[in-house]
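--- STAGE predict ---
source: upstream dedup step, 1 unique chain passed
mode: sequence only
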Amino acid sequence: MVLGNETVKRAFPGKSDSVKFQIGTIIEYSPKGKVVWEWHAKDFFTNEVLARAGSRDKGVGTATHMNALSVDGTNIYIGFRDVSWILKIDKTTKKVTEIYGGPDSGRPNHYAKGLFRFQHSATLLRDGSMAIINNDSIKDPAVFSSMVIFSLGEAPFGKGEERFRFLFNYDSLSSGKTQKMGNVSQLKNGNFLINMGSLNRVCEITPKGEVVWDLFVEKHDSVKESWKPFSQYRVAVATSLYPNEFSAKWEPDAAKGNYLDGKLTIYNVGSEPNSYSVFSEHRDGSKKLLATLPVVLPQQSTQAAVSIPRELISEQTRIVIRVNEKSYYEVLNIENW
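--- STAGE serialize ---
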């Protein structure tokens, strides 16, 4: 799924001319690039809904700023920063079934009203709740930004009920106020990695709110020879810089009948356990599965017998080794075999 924008032209009360503005789209593509599903925010954000949302645009309220997506089965959660709402969409009907946060929408099934403002991220957690970065107000001196976890209806909590809040003013090293950006991830150990966006700070906390790791992100200005704050839109966790790296070795046997047989060895030199699929790829773009290899642990190897039908071999034939369920792959030209 890809988040994007489209330009909309719409008439507003009190305006002599139609107003052009951009508003979000969600498009789902198949692996071959075909559009298989789409949703357009313009269909939900009517003039009446925009007026209730209290968008911050001057003149007419058209700013919504879609900035987050999470998928849970047939339900899709979308965050709109500038109206402080997270929408739950039924993928089958394309209807908005629930709203969380922000000002009153006047619609049923609106929960957590006023719980957060100008949020970033919409992370589904393993217990069924949701975590967001609550940028909130930078103008009110009594308000600090935070990471907020709220219920989506998981027992025994009510929908929209606040379950946890971690304030960003936990020490005197920063203002505790972030204007925009940011995200939160749940780590394998149950802790949370929090990116504070424009505060240019990242920390890891326990579920009880104890800070166990902290980082200020900066970049070097080579002209002024100084370090400056470097805000992060999002941060992510990887086991290494090359988690899925591998190498392959082919040892051909003597040709037998209509097949070219050989032994393929794959060395997992990355940092994650992976399994592999081996294909022949042809001039027309088609692929034929030749072999599947089981999970290989980091810094270990595996071997498999591979038979390539002679009719599949040509100057344009390539062998593609793909890491299963990931986008990483390696291509070998057939003549090198």
